[in-house]
């Protein structure tokens, strides 16, 4: 197999880093690279505002700040995601409320979300898991009906596409363009990288203002050394931004290559019993997920790994609603707004992580030959009955 981690780092990124170093200005407050990156990402997504920051987690923190929860307010999200989705909720003294997921793809189930909306709900945070578009149109309708902020975590879903509107001439929309704020990640293992980095996107002028201030210590630089509000230092460096710009130019090719080989694997596995295959529509293929409705994902993952295929069962050690963090202090010796809090059960998420979900590392360097190896080993190790979702 090809190196599962991939990467398209090369001479362009070296030249970008050298350009910044030779300029002598590595700080984005006075440099140009971060502002150019923001403009390029905003143009790619067709949105007026992009705010660069130090990580994908920082971008999500900016999004939570934009939602402006009061201490103890609730943000509904998924239990199948990186802890970076949840940490910003805790950082703002808000309470994460975990809704169950669609057993077919692990994304938030809007029906489960609807049942959890209450008087303290402030926002819904959806994750486009593994690059598969979440049902954000349904979540948008819920958010609008209840006056909530909708946040899209697109860390794994660069250029993922949502279903086109009903109009005959409408083009597909990018994941990240339906919510009030969308968050992208440039962490080492994402589609493109600058080591760590993030982007928050919005069409709302006021939300953009809040996020820019928070990312720069609440410093209104137009007013001099004046701190207009509470904030942290989440600024992206010029080195990060320059490397990210070089990577951004490669992004369409990265996603197209992943889609091409993922389509080959979908075709090869179309008649394999016991598998529920991911829907390809709009998928960005950060990972290639498989669901075994009858269970046995751990056994299959072990067989694939033994054959050299980079496969893992469950994706997480446990869904985040089962994480040990909820049983101890969070803020010093205090649990803050989590006093008396017990995350709700999410049985579909439990089953996916424990028994039915398997992910295969995927990247833009895979070839048809790699796909043949993966398909052969899956067919060899999968004797059950099932079909495409």
UniProtKB/TrEMBL annotation:
InterPro entries: DegT/StrS_aminotransferase (IPR000653), PyrdxlP-dep_Trfase (IPR015424), PyrdxlP-dep_Trfase_major (IPR015421), PyrdxlP-dep_Trfase_small (IPR015422). One of its GO terms (molecular function) is transaminase activity. Coiled coil: none annotated. Pfam families: DegT_DnrJ_EryC1. SUPFAM superfamilies: PLP-dependent transferases (SSF53383). It comes from the Bacteria. The modification N6-(pyridoxal phosphate)lysine is found at residue 190. Its cofactor is pyridoxal 5'-phosphate. Transmembrane segments: none annotated. GO terms for biological process: polysaccharide biosynthetic process. The active site is at residue 190. Keywords: Aminotransferase, Pyridoxal phosphate, Transferase. Belongs to the DegT/DnrJ/EryC1 family. This is DegT/DnrJ/EryC1/StrS family aminotransferase. It comes from Nonomuraea rhodomycinica.
């Amino acid at each position: 197999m090809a190196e599962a981690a991939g990467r398209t780092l090369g001479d362009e990124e070296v030249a970008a880093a050298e350009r910044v170093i030779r300029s002598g200005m590595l700080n984005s407050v006075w440099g140009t690279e971060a502002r150019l990156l923001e403009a390029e990402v905003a143009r790619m997504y067709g949105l007026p505002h992009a705010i660069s920051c130090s990580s994908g987690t920082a971008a999500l923190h900016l999004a939570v700040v934009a939602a402006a929860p009061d201490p103890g307010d609730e943000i509904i999200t998924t239990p199948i995601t990186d802890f970076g989705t949840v940490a910003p909720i805790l950082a703002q003294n808000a309470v994460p409320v975990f809704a169950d997921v669609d057993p077919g793809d692990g994304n938030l189930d809007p029906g489960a979300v609807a049942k959890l909306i209450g008087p303290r709900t402030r926002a819904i945070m959806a994750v486009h898991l593994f690059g598969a578009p979440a049902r954000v149109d349904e979540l948008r309708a819920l958010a609008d009906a209840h006056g909530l902020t909708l946040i899209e975590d697109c860390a794994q879903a660069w250029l993922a596409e949502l279903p086109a509107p009903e109009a005959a001439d409408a083009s597909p929309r990018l994941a990240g363009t339906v919510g009030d704020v969308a968050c992208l990640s440039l962490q080492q293992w994402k589609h493109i990288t600058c080591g760590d980095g993030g982007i928050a996107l919005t069409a709302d002028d006021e939300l953009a203002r809040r996020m820019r201030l928070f990312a720069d210590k609440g410093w209104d630089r137009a007013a001099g050394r004046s701190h207009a509000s509470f904030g942290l230092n989440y600024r992206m460096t010029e080195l990060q931004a320059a490397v990210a710009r070089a990577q951004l130019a490669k992004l369409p090719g990265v996603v197209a290559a992943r889609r091409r080989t993922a389509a080959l694997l979908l075709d090869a596995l179309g008649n394999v019993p016991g598998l529920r295959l991911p829907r390809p529509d709009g998928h960005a293929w950060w990972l290639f997920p498989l669901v075994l409705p009858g269970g046995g994902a751990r056994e299959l993952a072990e067989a694939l790994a033994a054959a050299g295929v980079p496969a893992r069962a469950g994706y997480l050690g446990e869904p985040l609603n089962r994480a040990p963090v909820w049983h101890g202090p969070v803020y010093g010796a205090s649990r803050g707004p989590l006093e008396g809090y017990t995350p709700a059960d999410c049985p579909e998420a439990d089953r996916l992580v424990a028994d039915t979900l398997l992910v295969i590392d995927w990247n833009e360097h895979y070839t048809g030959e790699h796909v043949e190896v993966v398909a052969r080993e899956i067919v060899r190790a999968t004797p059950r009955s099932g079909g495409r979702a």
